[in-house]
Design goal:
Rossmann fold; 11 helices; BMP_lipoprotein; 2 domains; 6-stranded mixed β-sheet; lipoprotein; 14 strands; cell membrane
């Protein structure tokens, strides 16, 4: 089974990674002592809403951390979020990780932006990373951002070619600018491929704290409604809630399109994988790994580190054999990928 999308060439670090993300839970720590016997050293990540075991965004970050810890012989620690937490809670969490000697300290998700900005200013000798759509101008902060709209465009192409009912769906976890990028790319990809295809769209919540990224039941209900309305392909950008979307698609024997990680490969979703057509991926694992490597090489720098289709930082998974059998789809995807990379196709970040 191939681990690299045929629609995105992996970077050297990503190719070396080649890991399967597995579900995990709780706070984990595997500390390596510094040479002088001082504090534990290594990489630390603070999870986004949904925590470990989401089979998507957070688990991809975990995979990058685990691989880096193994390759570089350093410690690792992952910390779960709490329900309804404030920026002050995030600040305390990041501060504690920095004081414990972890470097880099990575916040998974845009919600960590205010906390990282404050903590990084007080800890200039520690490298911080933030995964997702946030830009923090600081010498010791790496903004790990992705062109999610590009992989979502490809997901839209796949949906438009795979649908038989001429109706597809999109389920977003939270109505915010980041998830609107997924929506915009998907809608553009569908419409560019087949203007006659109808698109049903729904966002689960207005705010992340209301469970948009952490409620499979909400995802299942939304997807079920779209499927009852005629959708036979549903794409989700909803974190843990997306598991409900995939479950609903499998129950009705229609296609689901996953997000962030190659969800066809996720053990927790194994009984549904027959119905996971593909996934719009972003190499969160590779971004985390590369940041740890830069710290180990004493070459860590702040600023935007952008991953796009050209660099292989985003792409479309091709693990499902049924997906690769669709010859017309493969040709259409190749054409779209070349158009995006060459600049002929400009993918929107909002509608």
């Amino acid at each position: 089974m191939r681990r690299v999308s045929r629609f995105a060439l992996a970077s050297a670090a990503t190719a070396a990674l080649a890991v399967t993300v597995s579900a995990c839970g709780g706070t984990s720590s595997d500390a390596a002592k510094s040479e002088d016997g001082g504090k534990s050293k290594g990489v630390a990540i603070a999870y986004d809403v949904g925590g470990a075991g989401d089979q998507s965004f957070n688990d991809a970050a975990t995979a990058g951390m685990d691989k880096a810890a193994k390759d570089f012989g350093v410690g690792k620690k992952a910390v779960e979020p709490t329900d309804g937490e404030s920026d002050a809670d995030k600040i305390q969490r990041l501060t504690e990780l920095a004081k414990q000697g972890y470097n880099p300290v990575i916040g998974v998700g845009y919600a960590y932006a205010p906390a990282i900005k404050e903590v990084a200013a007080k800890n200039p000798d520690v490298t911080f990373g933030i995964v997702d759509d946030a830009t923090i101008e600081a010498k010791n902060v790496a903004d790990l951002v992705f062109n999610e709209e590009q992989s979502s465009y490809l997901a839209g192409v796949a949906a438009a070619k795979a649908t038989k009912s001429k109706t597809v769906g999109f389920v977003g976890g939270v109505d915010n600018p980041l998830i609107r990028k997924f929506e915009a790319g998907f809608v553009q990809g569908v419409q560019a491929t087949d203007k006659s295809v109808k698109i049903k769209r729904q966002f689960l919540t207005e705010k992340a704290e209301d469970g948009g990224f952490s409620s499979p039941d909400k995802g299942k209900e939304a997807a079920s409604g779209q499927i009852e309305g005629g959708a036979d392909v549903v794409y989700h950008a909803a974190g843990l809630s997306g598991q409900g979307v995939i479950e609903a698609a499998a129950a009705k024997k229609v296609w689901a399109i996953g997000v962030d990680s190659d969800q066809y490969k996720q053990k927790a979703l194994d009984k549904y994988k027959k119905y996971i057509l593909t996934s719009a991926t972003k190499d969160v694992a590779g971004a985390v790994y590369n940041l740890v490597k830069s710290v180990q090489d004493d070459k860590a720098e702040g600023g935007v580190v952008r991953a796009d289709l050209k660099s292989g930082g985003v792409g479309l998974a091709d693990s499902n054999p049924e997906f690769t059998k669709m010859k017309d789809l493969q040709a259409e995807l190749k054409k779209a990928e070349q158009g995006i990379i060459g600049g002929k196709i400009k993918v929107k970040t909002k509608l």
